[in-house]
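User: Let's play a game. I give you a shape written as tokens, and you guess the letters that built it. Ready? Here's round one.
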């Protein structure tokens, strides 16, 4: 069974009830002062506002929406040249790769923390069948397998062979790796690790 069958398919983001709606509204409509020169980001913010009032269209079930938070310069490069896996940082939760989330609010929040007012979000819409055809690994939560996998990747062990990996995001990697704290996780991340996988994303970029 593929990742698209096991993981939830959100309308705009992983909707954990009204708390997520309020978070999305706060992040996208009020708290974050993001420059809305990017039409893709503008569309996402409009979707949040519609969602917070109970409106907004749902994506067709056969498609999956994914979001990547980055800077405006990086977004322009990705739009013009596609995803370059060689630009990935190394010691990440699931190893070097291109990281997205099913949660647009999370992507926007993380990008804003890193890039401030220069943050923007790329929106990808891909077919569920295309995701299912990849060699994928799903972690439904912070299981022992998840913790071993993340520790291995963040410690620089040999790279895994998966095209795509999905699971929660580790909030406290340094303290966790040093044994100072139990793992604290949040949200959702879907990482793409092979050219075959990012080609699917490139084809699904919403311009």
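Assistant: Ready! My guess for every position:
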């Amino acid at each position: 069974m593929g990742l698209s069958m096991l993981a939830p398919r959100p309308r705009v983001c992983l909707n954990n009830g009204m708390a997520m709606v309020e978070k999305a509204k706060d992040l996208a409509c009020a708290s974050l002062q993001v420059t809305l020169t990017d039409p893709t980001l503008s569309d996402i913010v409009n979707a949040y506002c519609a969602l917070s009032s109970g409106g907004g269209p749902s994506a067709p079930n056969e498609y999956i929406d994914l979001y990547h938070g980055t800077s405006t310069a990086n977004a322009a490069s990705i739009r013009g040249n596609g995803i370059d896996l060689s630009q990935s940082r190394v010691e990440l939760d699931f190893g070097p790769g291109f990281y997205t989330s099913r949660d647009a609010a999370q992507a926007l929040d993380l990008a804003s923390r890193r890039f401030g007012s220069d943050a923007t979000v790329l929106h990808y819409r891909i077919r569920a069948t295309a995701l299912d055809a990849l060699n994928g690994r799903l972690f439904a939560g912070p299981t022992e397998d998840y913790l071993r996998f993340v520790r291995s990747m963040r410690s620089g062990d040999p790279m895994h062979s998966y095209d795509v990996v999905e699971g929660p995001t580790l909030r406290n990697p340094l303290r966790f790796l040093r044994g100072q704290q139990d793992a604290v996780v949040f949200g959702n991340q879907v990482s793409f690790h092979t050219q075959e996988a990012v080609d699917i994303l490139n084809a699904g970029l919403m311009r």
